[in-house]
Write a structure and sequence with these properties.
Helices cover 40% and strands 17% of the residues. It is α/β, with parallel strands linked by helices. It folds into two domains: 2-194, Rossmann fold (3-Layer(aba) Sandwich), CATH 3.40.50; 208-362, 3-Layer(aba) Sandwich (Rossmann fold).
């Protein structure tokens, strides 16, 4: 049995859980029986099994919020103070290491990707010099930049490009989930393959099959996404457009609002007097819920990917480059400022037409993506 350590988040963001489950599906297909060990990247000490309870009680949210001298987060300071035991540490003792999805390349005025919280403690401290021929895969990573970015901002940051080169060179193989990531890695002088996000295989890993479409799923985030990046976004206008659209659509068909966190639940309760809401603390529940969707109109990219993975069409309204992921599986996306009422109504008509044709198209795309992942894993199983 292959001991696989996964750098991910755990019960933190359901999208990350979808990505990780999809990767586990692919690893099982390629390598047979695997024993996954999870490392919550926001709390590097969870690579020590004796400290994994920190994550179980979610104290990482406390430790990761505060900084000590030199800008170092408390969680990283704790890791530096504690010894690493080779026989139990999840980086030291694994047969294979995997970095699971998420944005891994970013260049922002307030911080760049080389300053993330997990690279130095997990890779530089533990992996470098101790790989011993074990494979290290960076799978389904992506970017998180302004909408429409061409990646040129990375060219102005030599330290960021050096980090991207080092990250790439330390891995056995890398795949990315959007074309912007291909361009960014290219600026660092490396060539990488784009394959649709592994989240489309989570339902296969967990044995969840599509059901008859009973409702339309919509998802709302304030301002249309996590970040504005200084872009002109009229959050109030998006609120008004979304509320009127959902109210009118609810007169024609059953509409359920999927909320991926409590913040979204609170926002929906504030926006609507009455709304049917789906919310859970278990990512498995979301996949089962999405199995009975007819189609989706989403701010959450991985909500749309989960719906699509079950052969149901969806569209994404977003604010940053993560929405470019949708191009890889034939979904449409638009910048939130362009999501007018007319555009939304047009999408409903298009999605209704695609309900019958999309399952076959998605099955084809999933089969192709799986072949590409398995080829990548097969040809790079030795470092």
């Amino acid at each position: 049995m292959t001991r696989v350590s996964i750098i991910t988040t755990v019960n933190h963001n359901v999208g990350d859980d979808f990505v990780r489950e999809g990767i586990l599906h692919l690893l099982s297909k390629q390598f047979g029986k695997i024993q996954p060990k999870l490392i919550h990247k926001h709390l590097p000490i969870t690579t020590r099994p004796e400290f994994y309870w920190f994550r179980r009680y979610q104290v990482d949210k406390f430790f990761d919020r505060y900084h000590v001298s030199g800008g170092l987060k408390v969680s990283s300071r704790i890791d530096r103070m504690l010894p690493v035991f080779p026989w139990s540490d999840r980086i030291k003792a694994c047969d294979m290491l995997v970095q699971s999805g998420a944005p891994v390349y970013w260049a922002h005025p307030d911080g760049d990707c080389q300053n993330n919280e997990w690279w130095k403690p997990l890779i530089e401290r533990r992996w470098v010099g101790a790989a011993r021929g074990r494979p290290f895969f960076n799978l389904a990573g992506g970017t998180c930049q302004r909408w429409g970015s061409d990646g040129s901002e990375f060219a102005e940051k030599p330290e960021t490009l050096e980090y991207i080169r080092r990250f790439f060179d330390l891995t056995t193989a890398t795949s990315v989930r959007d074309q912007l990531s291909v361009r960014v890695v290219g600026l660092a002088g490396r060539k990488v393959e784009a394959i649709p996000c592994s989240s489309i295989f989570a339902v296969d890993r967990l044995g969840i099959a599509p059901e008859k479409g009973e409702y339309v799923v919509v998802n709302y985030m304030k301002g249309g996404g996590h970040y504005t990046f200084g872009q002109e976004i009229d959050a109030k206008k998006w609120d008004e457009t979304f509320v009127k659209f959902v109210d009118d659509l609810s007169q024609r068909m059953r509409v359920v609002v999927a909320c991926h966190d409590q913040k979204e639940v609170n926002a929906i309760k504030w926006l609507f007097k009455r709304a049917e809401i789906f919310f859970s603390h278990d990512y498995l529940d979301y996949l089962k819920f999405y199995a009975s969707a007819r189609f989706g109109i989403m701010n959450r990219v991985h909500g749309a990917f989960a719906i699509a993975s079950l052969g149901k069409p969806a569209v994404v309204i977003g604010t940053d480059s993560r929405a470019e992921m949708t191009n890889m599986i034939g979904l449409r996306s638009t910048f939130v400022s362009n999501a007018t009422r007319e555009w939304l109504d047009q999408q409903v008509d298009l999605l209704e037409k695609e309900v019958e044709t999309f399952p076959a198209e998605m099955a084809r795309r999933k089969a192709e993506a799986e072949r590409n992942y398995l080829r990548l894993l097969s040809t790079n199983s030795k470092s």
